Amino acid sequence: QVQLVESGGGLVQAGGSLRLSCAASGRTFSRYTMGWFRQAPGKEREFVAAIGWSGGSTYYSDSVKGRFTISRDNALNTVYLQMISLKPEDTAVYYCAAAIRDGVRKTSPYEYDYWGQGTQVTVSS
Q1: What is the phi-psi region of residue 15: left when phi exceeds 0, alpha when psi lies from -120 to 50, beta otherwise?
Q2: How far is it, in rounded angstroms, from Cα 56 to Cα 89?
Q3: Distance CA 57, CA 34 (A)
């Protein structure tokens, strides 16, 4: 099992940057595929990015590719989402998630087994 706690959300102006962190606890954190999702009011939960066990394989949604970077530090049991060139449409609650099965092309929330509580990101125009 794994427990996830997101942090780093807040208010930022359009064009600004923000880094989200997800602290994980569990004996086998390094063997979980980790993902970031976001959910805006009235919308479905949307895939953002995923990273494999070792951190060498990543996958991004088209809407964030080139602006967001997912990374992980297994020694610190932490996964990160570095966001630059933020846009108002990036405003959402951001969730981190863990999947037991290997593979980074996991774009559906149903492919993940554990979830954090979310952290709010608001981008003003």
Answers
A1: left
A2: 28
A3: 11
Cα–Cα distance measured from residue 84 to residue 99, given in angstroms and rounded to the nearest whole number: 26
Q: How far apart are CA 34 and CA 77, in angstroms?
A: 11
pLDDT digits 0-9 by tens, 42-94: 999 999 999 998 889 999 999 999 999 999 998 899 999 999 999 999 999 99
Please state, in angstroms and rounded to a whole number, the distance separating the CA atoms of residues 94 and 90: 10
Q: Are 115 and 96 in contact (CB under 8 A)?
A: yes
Q: Does residue 35 contact residue 50 with C-beta atoms inside 8 Å?
A: yes
58 and 50 Cβ atoms separated by less than 8 Å: yes
Distance, in Å, from the CA atom of 92 to the CA atom of 10, rounded to the nearest integer, reads 10
